[in-house]
Amino acid sequence: MPLAPAPEASLGLSERGSRTVLATCPHDCPDTCAIRVTVEGGRAVKVQGHPDHPPTQGALCTKVSRYPERTYHPERVLQPMRRSGPKGSGRFEPIGWDEALDSIATRLKAIAARDPEAILPYSYAGTMGLVQGDGMSARFFHQLGASLLDRTICASAGGDALAATYGGKVGMHVEHFAESRLILIWGSNSIASNLHFWTLAQQAKRDGARLVCIDPRRTETADKCHQHIALLPGTDGALALGLMHELIRQDLLDHDYLARHVDGWPKLRERAMAWSAQRAADVCGITAEEIVQLAAEYGSTRPAAIRLNYGMQRVRGGGNAVRLVALLPCLVGAWRHRAGGLLLSSSGWFRPARNDAVLQRPDLLAGRRPRTINMSTIGNDLLRETSPAFGPKLEAVVVYNSNPVAVAPDSGKVVAGFAREDLFTVVIEHFMTDTADHADIVLPATTQLEHWDVHTSYGHTYAMLNQPAVPPLGQSRSNAAIFRALAERMGFDEPCFSDDDATMARQAFRQDIVPWDELLRTGWVRLPMAEAPFAEGGFPTATGRAIVDAPGLGVPDHVANYECVQSDPDLARRFPLAMISPPARNFLNSTFVNVKSLRDIEGEPRVEIHPDDAAARGIVGGAVVDVINQRGRYRCKADVTGRARPGVVNGLGIWWRKLGLEGTNVNQLTHQRLTDIGRAPAFYDCLVEIAPVAPHA
Length: 697
Description:
By secondary structure, the chain is α/β, with parallel strands linked by helices. The chain contains 26 helices and 27 strands. A hairpin with a 6-residue loop joins strand 18 and strand 19.
């Protein structure tokens, strides 16, 4: 049964028409903030963090605090459009919804009649909502029998590695970092990407805790920590092994915890004993003294906690590195304390509460087993012909909640694939992104302020509700409404295709764990879980113990980058600088790039280079440079700065390609080779050279 909107009391309606609506940030950040939207005269005029939500505590990041600017952006797509020029030209003409839906259904029916696996959905985390992310869309593509998408582009290496070690993507409560005495912030620019954790870390710091940042880049977070360890990209596993070696040598182990709660410890001990502090330091490009000191602090401070983030797993050996870092709290018994342990992702805690089978309806496949295509290799896969190994050539792609032309690796190939005249492309979007420019039909989507949704989090343990604050602008429709309408045009008559968005929001969670009435009343529900979840083991593995020697993976070890002097010395001679591409502080992947106030703060596309590396190449700050490798060229401005360590450059992303100096962005240089675990992209495993551009060029 369709649900009526929440009663006026829960929305805070006033007699004058000014009201406050409970909402949730939809974006790909661990914090998943609770939001209060102020609506006046039918228009959302302000978004604020909800002060009563424990993780949010009333604060929003700069990006989301300007969400109305994005919703009411003058360039927002507000009606269906059909391409009227060459692919990539951005030339479109308006059409009606009936014409758009009929055209899409006609093309998809014809392709599906030949082979439905020639159709591919392409989506990720443009919204993290369960309804507008993969609710009705999953039902639609399951019924169709389309190719499945392996959604790997951000976190699957680390997620699979954590599951191999702990049994799931689980960790400590974020709130308890405020009580930690030592916090290792590993691969995270928390000020920019995890604001509310940073608030807790600052509270701990004021109470005497020591903060250590481990990151190749001297980030804004590193500036505020007591120590910054600037290791080379892709060497985190070597650092973890060096720390383990020192913990053993200095006898700083919790032998009881290891004996009772870790399977395979003797094998890990043997592996670690081969990694002296000096050996690890040589690989990491740091000093042995840094490793010895950090191990002594980590092994002797109680409670000690690690905030691990996904940047460090975007290299060839990223999965092994996460497994090694995840075992560090087990060595010292940090899990005994509620303010000790590790947090990479909390999303696994939501698994018992989620009704994915009800929401996504995989039973609609009816026994079919379509092929799976990895979203991280879309550049190659769009250019493949039909073959026994690959299956049918891709004839149609439906893109929603993503901008692959800008965000997928090796974007020269991605552009070539989407430029195919024989590829039918539908893009559901808010703006004319780089991908929308290559569409045949663009459909206008609602923003978070205009639709129902529910959310989990990978940074805290509260289920969240988003209620629509304003009606859909223009002719925009929610993702779920669009796929519902397409299902009708395709003749899909299963009753689940008539569920409205609010009904699907209620279906998303088990009512005994996340009661809908409570979610509707308060906006969030805290999951039931222990304060110190692994104080006595109890990991969600088959044995209840943390795993060292995982089936099919073995004992974790350092795995060198694909592109480094150890793996490919000839390539390293041609392109001697390692490049990482962390997000610009005021963007979130490619979202918010077109919000003028945020782009004005960010400036323009640039690459950070250390003064020594710049001087050796005749590069001065503000100069136009070419960043090059065997895959292509990216032209941007140089920022000569100590934020880059010697030998490493930072190509800040992810700018839309059309805003670049030559219509490219940093992903022109990244490759499609995958990580050791999780089939994920190795964005930060990349060698380049940089040269100044002559003024006349």
